[in-house]
Automatic annotation (TrEMBL):
It comes from the Bacteria. One of its GO terms (biological process) is methylation. The keyword Coiled coil does not apply. Keywords: Methyltransferase, Transferase. Pfam families: Methyltransf_11 (PF08241). GO terms for molecular function: S-adenosylmethionine-dependent methyltransferase activity. The lineage of its organism: Bacteria, Bacillati, Actinomycetota, Actinomycetes, Pseudonocardiales. This is Methyltransferase domain-containing protein.
């Protein structure tokens, strides 16, 4: 789905992004415009970058940068010293390369579990709606820790199960879990991997109330009837099977690589 077919071209995403959006500023009683859908996806990036306090002196890595639209926007909006995107799909990297700007904004192919960068390269690392695809969250956390400098900041934003005790139920409701595109990871599992990698100050914030209702309204506007699987994201959230999170963590300023 991230190859020649270009998932980002589907109307559900709009604007070249591939994320569910942060809908806090979209009124619940109005029809959603394409511009508002695109803005919801910018808003998710804004939320994460503001959480980490990204500024002019930072070297930033986006893990799972997709088509590069989000990274390019964040580069212009927050003005970091440099921003680099890495994605497993060569097709996505080829699309993202259209947004590259010399050595300060670049994209390359690579796996989240084996990042193609030296130790202690970045001040900030982010991963927005990508970690749910990964099999090995332990390797992902360890690699993010490795490429951050002491004092570096990390944030993951995507959907996970709140607990691990209902594993398998999402696959019965949502096709992306049935097919294995998305993995049934839980928040305790994610936090455990971050702490095992060496991260401290792990903070988990649920933002589902500003994701799932807006996304469901948008999908309904596209003509998907209630009961079809894309409309089950919201019901799965309401039934406690899934939520959307921003998870931030830090690497101690005084700690060197082990």
């Amino acid at each position: 789905m991230y190859g020649e077919d270009d998932l980002s071209s589907l109307p559900v995403f709009a604007g070249g992004f591939i994320n569910f959006g942060f809908w806090q500023d979209v009124a619940a009683d109005q029809r959603i415009t394409v511009e508002q859908r695109v803005e919801s996806q910018f808003a998710l990036y804004r939320l994460v970058f503001e959480r980490l306090g990204v500024g002019a002196g930072d070297a930033v890595l986006e893990i799972g940068s997709g088509t590069g639209v989000g990274a390019a926007w964040a580069f212009a909006e927050f003005g970091p010293r440099e921003l680099h995107g890495v994605d497993l799909s060569p097709d996505q990297v080829a699309r993202a390369s259209a947004h590259a700007q010399g050595e300060r904004l670049t994209y390359r192919q690579g796996a989240a579990e084996d990042l193609p960068f030296p130790d202690e390269t970045f001040d900030v690392a982010v991963s927005i709606e990508a970690a749910q695809h990964l099999d090995d969250l332990g390797a992902f956390a360890a690699q993010a820790y490795r490429v951050l400098r002491p004092g570096g900041r990390f944030a993951v934003s995507t959907f996970f199960a709140p607990t691990a005790d209902r594993r398998g139920e999402l696959a019965a409701r949502l096709d992306t879990f049935t097919s294995g595109v998305d993995r049934d990871h839980s928040i305790p599992e994610v936090v455990g991997h971050l702490e095992a990698a060496g991260f401290g100050d792990v903070r988990v914030t649920s933002i589902g109330e500003h994701v799932w209702p807006g996304l469901d309204r948008w999908i309904a506007q596209l003509g998907v009837p209630e009961g079809e699987w894309p409309r089950r994201w919201l019901t799965s959230y309401r039934d406690g099977l899934i939520d959307y999170y921003v998870i931030s963590a830090g690497r101690s300023a005084g700690e060197r690589m082990r």
